Amino acid sequence: MTVHVREMAEADIEAVSAIRVRGWQAAYAGIVPRTYLDAMTVDADAARRREWFSRPGRESQDLVALGERGPVGWICFGPVRGGTDGPGRAGEVYALYVAPDLTGRGIGRGLLDEAHARMGGRGFEASALWVLRDNGRARRFYERAGYHVDGAAQEDVYDGVTLTEVRYTRAL
Questions:
Q1: Residue 95, beta-bridge partner list
Q2: Phi-psi region for residue 102, left (φ > 0), alpha (ψ -120 to 50) or beta?
Q3: Residue 134: phi, psi to the nearest 5?
Q4: In CA terms, which of 4, 86, 93, 119 is 20 to 30 Å from 109?
Q5: What are phi and psi of 44, to 5 degrees?
Q6: Given this model, what pLDDT does residue 84 score?
Q7: Are 17 and 49 in contact (CB under 8 A)?
Q8: Which residues contact 56 (CB under 8 A, 6 or more apart)?
Q9: Which whole-number Å values give the CA distances from 108 to 43, 84, 171, in the listed order?
Q10: CA pair distance 89, 123, nearest whole angstrom
Q11: C-alpha 35 chain-centroid distance
Q12: Do 65 and 107 contact (CB within 8 A), yes or no?
């Protein structure tokens, strides 16, 4: 599948929110409580994304992958949150989602490669990201892209269920 990666525009917000919500519901089924996933809506996500997108001085960058039907993938990245205990100046991939019916076709890798290039261009020497420990598919994807678990972990609570995220890092 041929895709083109470009900066996300405000007009992409609805499509990106659909990709994100459907991505969560597909990728985290059996990991995140069904009640949490079922409560997610594209409209609510789009409202939060509009607020975030219009925030003055935000340091994050959003890219979309465009296919024949418009946006089919999205990545958001920027400076590492909460400081870093890793090597050099680090960036962070905050989110990466591809339309669930198009996973496994290189779209996510194309977005990730472009984000790495742009992070390097901003002077970042390394990239970090967080993955739910039980999300084996995502973990394999990031490991194939050169990331490795660095030993850091954090917990998040979803509808009363505590889930562990592990941090991955790689040099740029």
A1: 76
A2: alpha
A3: -90, 5
A4: 86
A5: -65, -40
A6: 52
A7: yes
A8: none
A9: 24, 25, 19
A10: 7
A11: 22
A12: yes
What are the structural domains of the chain? 4-171 (3.40.630.30)
**Residue 125 burial (10 A CB sphere; 0-12, 13-18, 19+):** middle
CA 132 to chain centre: 12
Nearest to 63 by CA among 21, 104, 23, 3: 3
SS3 38: helix
User: Tell me, what's the pLDDT at 88?
Assistant: 62
**Cβ–Cβ under 8 Å, residues 128 and 172:** no
Task: Give CA torsion, residues 130, 170, 148, 111, to 10 deg.
Answer: 60
How many contiguous H segments (helices) and E segments (strands) does the chain have?
Answer: 5, 7
pLDDT string in tens for the chain (172-residue length)? 678 999 999 999 999 999 999 999 999 999 999 999 999 999 999 999 999 888 888 889 999 999 989 999 999 999 998 765 555 689 999 999 999 999 999 999 999 999 999 999 999 999 999 999 999 999 999 999 999 999 999 999 999 999 999 999 999 9
